[in-house]
Amino acid sequence: MDSMRTNILHIMGLSDDMKIVFKSVYSSLPDPPISLHAPLASSRAAHPPLDGVDRISALPSEILRDIISRLPAKEAARTSALSSRWRGLWHSVPLVVADSHLKHIGRPPRVDELDHRGGILLRAIDGMGDAAPRVSCALAAHPGPFRGVHLTCTPMDAYEIEIALWLQLLVAKGVEELVLAHRASDLETDVPGRRRAPSLRQFPPHLRELGMCSMIMGGKDIAYMLDRCPVLENLAIVSARGPVRLRVASNTLRCVEVTSSLVKEIIVERAPRLERLMFWEAWGMGGTVDMTAGLIGMHTSVKIGHAPNLRVLGFLVPTMHELNIGNTIIMTGTKASPRTMMSSVKTLGIQVKLFDHNEVRMLPSFLRRFPNVETLYIQSETIPAMPPGKLSPRFLQETGPIDCLQKHIKKVIIREFRLQRCELDFIKFIAERGQVLEKIVVVLTHSCSSMADRLHASLRTFMASARVASEDYEMIVCESPSPVDATVWCFQGAFNMSKDPFDVSQCFKDGASCRAA
């Protein structure tokens, strides 16, 4: 599958940079809530009754509308041909319109039909030559509102006028979920931000969920957008093609997710309903890449003001993410006070090099900001050129009381575990201080997963000498869900408020929308 995808990207004429962006963006896009391949009936129901009576059409209108709401837009409209009972019902049902559902299905192109950019093959793959007119018809024919609109196959530069019209229609008719993905052929010469006038001035006021992938948006653009989306609850920025400067001042946002992007600053000024502030591969600005020490000197400002309902935060990266709470920058040794603590956070994620003394020294300061954390995720980073070492003895001996660790943390999950001595020392540190600790879950890297039983035995042997604070805690060793040695992120899990968004145990199973990098 990977080789086929790579060949397709080559035929599509994308630059090397855009191939990376393309893979990143399209692996993170949520699937439309309606599938073309969902079975509509069992094998028994597929056969008409012997008496020829149409019992389905006799069902109440609300049930018929519910049936229509589960169909792709094209099939929903076709129900009008079933009988007079169905005629016009689809107009009163919030539909899902996806350009990928409206693509042309025809014979595959011959080799002699391909140009140097693979244009005809590209249209056969994603329907870019046929979907746009059908999207126009679908959006114009339905009075709205729309349950969801997914535009992921239509190149925005080729259909600027149409996309501007679509956004105007969605503003007028209403849409709850909108997914836009711009696909450029070159990272430098084909920039969607240079054509943003038609799009950024139009946002559906009923929009509740918005994901922006591979876009260039300045801080003022994002602020303008948030101001024009008065009921927006979920916002995702993925693979931004420029530095992200995000200021959150919203009475409705519940989840903000920023991934695979360079981030200058994230400032939460006022967000009374915000429950999740999440970043993955949100790299700082500046700095250098060192083969022995990794990323050095990168900096991102993360400032949290009024967010009284924030429950999930992470992954914070010590020394890279400059955490500011209550107008106080959190540094090594910063004393905890009510003004510099966030008691609402229950789930915290920290990405750290446990062999790096500077990063490890920041851990207690970070943990003391969140006194009521119950679930702690540690993403263990490593650098191939850096030999593994021990956790600093000074850290182990001199670290004072940490309130959340002693009184509240029940579960600690350590991801990308390699059985390095610094990782073992950290587990011991947690176990000897966690008075209410119930579980330590160790998630191995992919390359270590084949040795899970042996590593579990080694871990038990190492922990035999620990003076654990909670005799009832359980040690669990899990294999990596990733097919390669990589960190894992579940994009769609961020918006699922009933799910732990950092739990990747089911990633890469049952078609989950997850990515490893």
UniProtKB/TrEMBL annotation:
InterPro entries: F-box-like_dom_sf, F-box_AtFBL13-like, F-box_dom, F-box_dom-containing, FBD, LRR_FXL15/At3g58940/PEG3-like
Highest rank taxon of the organism: Eukaryota
Coiled-coil stretches: none
Record-annotated F-box domain positions: 53-105
Protein name according to UniProt: F-box domain-containing protein
